[in-house]
Amino acid sequence: MVTAVIGYERSSLARRFRRRIIIVVIAQERLIGMKKLRFLLSLTNDDNDYQIEQTSAARHAARKLGIELDIVYARNEGIVQSQQLLASIQSSTVPRSDAIIFEPAGSTAHPQVARAAAAAGIGVVLLNHDADYIAELRRLFHVPAFSITSNHEEIGRMQGQQLGAVLPGGGIVLYIHGPAESAAAKHRYTGLLETKADNIQLRVLKAQWTEASSYKAVSSWLRLSTSRQAQIQAVCAQDDSMAMGARKAIEECTELREQFQKIPFLGCDGLPRTGQEWVHRKQLTATIVIPTNADLAIEVMAKSIATGTLPPESKFTTAKSFPALEVLTQQSRRARAASR
Description:
Layout: H1 12-33, E1 38-43, H2 49-65, E2 68-73, H3 78-90, E3 99-102, H4 111-119, E4 123-127, H5 133-141, E5 145-150, H6 152-166, E6 171-177, H7 183-195, E7 200-206, H8 211-222, H9 225-229, E8 232-237, H10 240-251, H11 257-260, E9 265-266, H12 275-280, E10 287-289, H13 294-307, E11 314-317, E12 320-322, H14 325-339
Parallel strand pairs: 1-2, 1-3, 3-4, 4-5, 5-11, 6-7, 6-8, 8-9
Antiparallel strand pairs: 10-12
């Protein structure tokens, strides 16, 4: 190690300056000797606009930090995701990941997988979900373990307020719910019921966070005689791609196309190139902007490993209505006035 010879050796100022030089040199030597970090990111699917944006944001963050990033997709199957993660944790043929980052594709947050990773000294990040085991992993294995999520109940409450803005007189809403086993979908629905006005009734269909699954579900519903009698006055979906799938199915139904032509369509995710753009084009009436968090997870995990400090157990990102609720209310008033 190189040390600097500084005049006035015995002065306190010289001693502090020399210590500072030594600390910097040691930090540089550690950084040079540190192996390149490798993270594994597991996302629910690769055909949903939010998941696609998660992929892009994660890759950008990994490149910026010089991290090797492997990405796998669970095809919306919890068992598939569990197998993918365990294969990486237990593999003796490929380089082991320093951290696994995943958004649960099934009904559970894979506690056994998370414990296996932590026991092997691998960091754990849970996306868009919460789990009691995070505190346990930190306490027993002293690894970076934390969750980053949007407040999904708050997102649901925001959608309930959006429905109130576009349907002040109430009405029947076709509501496209995410997968039954999805915690995010359940929380969004719970939040919406808290703020939805009593004069707004829901007709709930289930889909799989994709445009194709929503298109299929709505197309099947439209073939039922009850759909002709429903007098739907708005369509509200738990993500933008499902809202667009519903819109596509409705536009292809010649019998009901005119009835649905001017009703509001609400989505959720609000990505600049999809949801927000669809609002600008008036294909959607409103969406909710939800920031990506895979990139944030990579940044926080890398910092934790580099500094040896544990980040907070959980972090919430902030969602917002697009357009803002006041603007949406004004737009709806103008639209009703113009139609009279």
